Amino acid sequence: GAGVSQSPSNKVTEKGKDVELRCDPISGHTALYWYRQSLGQGLEFLIYFQGNSAPDKSGLPSDRFSAERTGGSVSTLTIQRTQQEDSAVYLCASSLIAGAQYFGPGTRLTVT
Amino acid sequence: AQSVTQPDIHITVSEGASLELRCNYSYGATPYLFWYVQSPGQGLQLLLKYFSGDTLVQGIKGFEAEFKRSQSSFNLRKPSVHWSDAAEYFCAVGTNSGNTPLVFGKGTRLSVIA
């Protein structure tokens, strides 16, 4: 079956612009996670959605970051007023309840 | 809070040799433990997981890992490495309370030489 998909695969943006990153989870997976992978920080948790519960936003680094999940499926991560330190690979994962997380290929964001 | 330590940043092994990648975790209860592999420019692929039961778990690509509670370890092993195994390997820990974000180690980069 289809895995987790993310788009775009690469995004180059100018400092100060807003960007939206998309994640399509595996069908039927109730949980969806966003992580960020950068050279200096490794893999960091950003935000987590589980069913209809309020998302766990405890990993978001600043209020410039937000995410939503529509209809319990697709999720969009939005970064406003991008900064150079936002440059990283953004990874999305999904899982069943108490199951292993399966990752998408990631979106490489470069802020110039 | 949980944490994961992968003591080896980079390991080089010869093709056909055995491999062991170390992982130590910190968590007060029984953890969920995972190993993922990442090839350059790719996402993370799940190799294997431990939730409960048999402490020796088998994964894909001939990998296995052993959960040792007394040592807080979950080391990854492969008896004979192939050149295609060259990649970055990440150990991760989750809690046993259901879906929770994973905490990852910093990763171990594996190089395979002929």
Helix content of chain A: under 10%
Which residue ranges of chain B are poorly predicted, with pLDDT under 50 across at least 5 consecutive positions?
none
Please give the alpha-carbon distance between the first and last residues of chain A: 37 Å
What is the helix tally of chain B? Answer: 0
Sheet with the most strands of chain B? 6 strands, mixed
Task: Give the helix proportion of chain B (percent range).
Answer: under 10%
Low-confidence stretches of chain A: none
Beta-strand portion of chain A reads over 45%
Quaternary assembly = heterodimer
Topology:
The complex is a heterodimer of chains A (112) and B (114).
Chain A: E1 5-7, E2 10-13, E3 19-24, E4 31-38, E5 42-50, E6 65-69, E7 75-79, E8 88-95, E9 102-103, E10 107-111
Parallel strand pairs in A: 2-10
Antiparallel strand pairs in A: 1-3, 3-7, 4-5, 4-8, 6-7, 8-9, 8-10
Chain B: E1 3-5, E2 10-14, E3 19-21, E4 24-26, E5 32-38, E6 44-50, E7 56-58, E8 64-68, E9 73-78, E10 87-94, E11 103-104, E12 108-113
Parallel strand pairs in B: 2-12
Antiparallel strand pairs in B: 1-4, 3-9, 5-6, 5-10, 7-8, 8-9, 10-11, 10-12
